[in-house]
Amino acid sequence: MAVVYQENMGLMEKLRILSDSAKYDVACTSSGVDRKGAALNMGNTAACGICHSFSADGRCISLLKILLTNECIYDCKYCINRSSNDIIRTSFTPEEVCTLTSEFYRRNYIEGLFLSSGVQHSPDRTMEQIIKTLRLLRETYHFNGYIHCKAIPGADGNLVEMAGWYADRMSVNLELVTAEGLKRLAPHKNRKNILLPMRKIQDGIEEGRQMLGFCGGSKGAYWHTQRRLSGKTEKEKLEEDTVRLFGKEREKTSDALDAAGGFKVPSVLSDSVKQRGFVPAGQSTQIIIGATPETDFEVMSVVEALYRRFDLKRVFYSAFVRVNDDANLPVLPGGPPLLREHRMYQADWLLRYYGFSAEEILTKERPNFNVLLDPKCNWALGHLEMFPVEIGRADYFQLLRVPGIGPKSARRIVEARKNAVLGFDDLKKLGVVLKRALYFITCSGQMLYPTKLEEDYIVRHLLDASSGKFPAHLCGEKFTYRQMSLFDVGGILDPGTGEGLCC
């Protein structure tokens, strides 16, 4: 193992190294918590400042994103901090992390902390240092702002639970979706060590809310959409998820997860910590896209199983960046697969907000995303028998299937049509993206203009619209199109489809 460890390093030099080492972790969000400031505490989770990432309501927020240490006993092929890399190693002390966080917050540089770490000495030792840091920050420095921390795979479940009382969000990175991929690129990790902390966090969120009556720990978006629409029994869904997540080792690993339950409130916690709740912003994970040869269908099937079995708040996707020269890593002439990552995020929103399942978005026969069209348009073109949809009669979930109509605009349509007959002018005011929706809807039995319900015809015109070129037969029409913004009636937009999502 090639390690260059520099002693007596200054705090700013440590910050430069450990913030740079953390930049490949994309699970950086501050959603799910709205805690106001208190007289005896410093900071909150609601104020806005310098923008670096986005919260659930569309606000730009800033987080101090660092590693506790870039030392690591693991040799993951894709990681810049792997044990075999010849790089300068350093570590923060818990006091140094607290000093940086509080001083950066006082200067309005940040609104919270994102703390990850390499695995130093052992998972338990690393987790203990993370807990010490968070406890010091909360109880000694009285930091009441947002904190997202990593749960270290392989760490004792009691340590994971303890960290959950001090963090707003926790995450355990799955990294690769198959056991074979982990074995080849991350030989020191396995599914069991990754999924056990997930189960601990999930149990803590659910049981902590019930035992202590917390307001936090809200369900993820997936629970409110697809889970309610599925016609399968819980036993059937559990069996499918077990196969997707565990493969050949499903019996042994699944039994270990089932035995991992059990939760109790530690007696050493102060009342202020208990009032904050256990991981009130939920948990998330990250998946690397393009490092292993899995299809998009395999990735989304595993993601759906994670949402269903662990009630994750978010799954983040990171296009593979080749930072190490290794024979086991793919060579990507075109660079990181950013378009594929983008399609993953679009499909993820369909799972969480639109009631789609992985089997609807992709199939074994067509296992990869269409590079030209977003997943929702691609699905609609494959199911033209379901269109056009009559705006005056379609229910909420039928409207969600229409390209150009998002959850917010669908709810507005359902409410508005109780009092009036809606036309295409009205749909524009309600936030519908007509340049996509017009091929799939009718108002009072009429389409916006005579069109063909044929795949080639619609694809051709959709691609013209996406490039800024509108069909010739629309020239001279009274309808004009422009890019929607946060200030339009559609509110916050779906980043993948441009559809209005929420106010």
Task: Write up what this structure looks like.
The chain has 2 domains: 3-264 and 271-361, TIM Barrel (Alpha-Beta Barrel); 375-502, no CATH class. Helices cover 39% and strands 10% of the residues. It is built from 20 helices and 14 strands. It has helices spanning 11-21, 94-106, 123-140, 157-164, 179-185, 191-212, 221-224, 226-229, 234-246, 250-258, 271-276, 296-310, 338-353, 358-361, 375-381, 396-400, 407-416, 424-429, 434-437, 455-466; strands at residues 3-5, 53-54, 60-61, 63-67, 87-89, 112-116, 146-150, 169-171, 283-289, 314-319, 389-390, 441-442, 492-493, 500-502. The strands form 5 sheets. The protein has a 6-stranded parallel β-sheet. Strands 1-5 form a two-stranded parallel ribbon. A two-stranded antiparallel sheet has the order 2-3. β2 and β3 (60-61) form a beta hairpin. The protein is globular.
Distance between the ends:
52 Å
- Largest β sheet strand count, sense and barrel closure: 6 strands, parallel
Give the proportion of residues in helices: 25-40%
Total number of domains:
2
Placed side by side, the strands forming the largest sheet appear as 4-6-7-8-9-10
- Mean pLDDT across the residues is 81
Radius of gyration: 24 Å
Instruction: Say how many strands there are.
Output: 14
Tally the helices: 20
